[in-house]
Amino acid sequence: MTSINLTSSQLDQLAQSIKAWGVELGFAQVGITDVDLGKHGDRLQAWLKKQYHGEMGYMADHGDKRYRPDNLVPGTLRIITVRMDYMAPDVQTLEVLHNPNQAYISRYALGRDYHKLMRKRLTQLGKKIQAAIDELQLSVNYRAFVDSAPVLERGLAQKSGQGWIGKNSMLINPKAGSYFFLGELFTDLPLPLDAPYDDMNCGSCTACITECPTDAIVENHVVDGRKCISYLTIELKDAIPIELRSKIGNRIFGCDDCQLCCPWNKFTQTSQEKDFTPRHQLDTATLLELFAWDEATFLSKTEGTPIRRAGHERWLRNIAVALGNAPYNKKIISALNEKLNIESELVKEHLHWAITQQIQKEPQD
After folding, report:
1. Which of 57, 61, 140, 275 is the most buried (most CB within 10 A)?
2. What is d(CA 135, CA 10) in angstroms, rounded to the nearest whole number?
3. Which helix (H) or strand (E) holds 96?
């Protein structure tokens, strides 16, 4: 059996059905592209050459598979891309970010981990495609990915018409902004292609560049990951550079600043997925509340969320920095001192830094 004997009419109808099934499964949009990533692969190699990936060694691994999808999954002809909105209704953003005593967690990480949810939906989409092909007594191969393999997700999404890559390197959709997850379904079906989104609609706006707290956006579409707060609070395993600590503010896991200031996010579509609803009041918790979590509490409260990835040690490291940045408070100094008996030298370093910052802010009589 083979899947290449479908007529153009059958392939067109199948593509339309795939897009309808995707919407039924909760995806906001479905697109189809080929495996030629061209300029996106060139940009990746230039980015890696400048060492902008920092400790993210996985970005340089796997040879050319990241920008040659048919080498990652041999036989791949088309990639079905999907996006899913994640901003939960009524979630405060600027209110929390501007309150230095509250903990700011990137909005994507407040609810259930999206990887498993989206991969399950993509697999369901693949099964629907397989069922349709089975009726024709043909075969199809597919494989689902959600930020879980060397895949240039934003490049594929742009090529399949999902939006353009903005100056902050985020994918921006003209009807939904940038608060959404991406996923892909690799297949050997020769489906018709969607037109790429070639318009760059950022114009002269440089809000994301000027508003980045650490000046991590070094040029249009290029982010120096080593300075990005998302990298510093999630990916970086070592000490946060001293010169960047005060710029992190109260951001303890990730950063949304380049999205919060983006004019296109006035079109943000709130998510209908209940699993993306914030858990354990993570959207409103104070720094001191979260700093009090021991490891068992951390593991329990973050089970099934993206936050678990940081681990308790880096969780404390990040909150210590945020507490150092907070206004002077005797309770903060007390909480920091109480943690000094911790075994982790990494955390201790940041505790001492935070205590020093607090003492320097102490009002003089």
Report:
1. 140
2. 12
3. helix 94-97
Q: What is the pLDDT of residues 26-52, one digit of tens each?
A: 999 999 999 999 899 889 898 999 998
* Closest listed residue to residue 230, CA positions, set 114, 365, 106, 360: 106
Rounded Cα–Cα distance for residues 36 and 281 (Å): 43
Q: Which amino acid does the sequence have at 233?
A: T
Short-list 132, 146, 160, CA closest to 3: 132
What is the rounded average pLDDT of the residues 242-262? 98
Selection from 294, 297, 280, 229 nearest residue 110 by Cα: 280
Higher pLDDT, 358 or 65: 358
The structure tokens 């318009």 sit at 199
Q: Which is the catalytic residue, given 34, 70, 147, 275? A: 147
For the record, the structure tokens of 214 come out as: 């650490």
DSSP 266: G
- CA 345 distance to own-chain centroid: 29
Confirm whether 147 is a catalytic residue: yes
Q: What is the mean pLDDT of residues 230-238?
A: 97
Spatial CA neighbour of 115 closest among 137, 145, 89: 145
Predicted TM-score (pTM) above 0.70: yes
User: How many angstroms from the chain centroid is the CA of residue 23?
Assistant: 21
Residue of 174, 170, 196, 183 lying closest to 80 (CA atoms) = 183
pLDDT, tens digit, 9 for 90 and up, residues 81-115: 999 999 999 999 999 999 999 999 999 999 999 99
> How is the chain split into domains, by residue range?
8-89+108-187, 207-360
DSSP strand E in the chain: where?
A: 29-33, 78-85, 104-105, 142-145, 164-165, 171-172, 180-187, 217-219, 222-223, 251-253
CA–CA separation, 142 vs 315, rounded Å?
Answer: 37
Q: What spatial distance separates the first Cα and last Cα of the chain, rounded to whole Å?
A: 85
Q: Tell me the chain's radius of gyration from C-alpha atoms.
A: 22
pLDDT of res. 66: 86
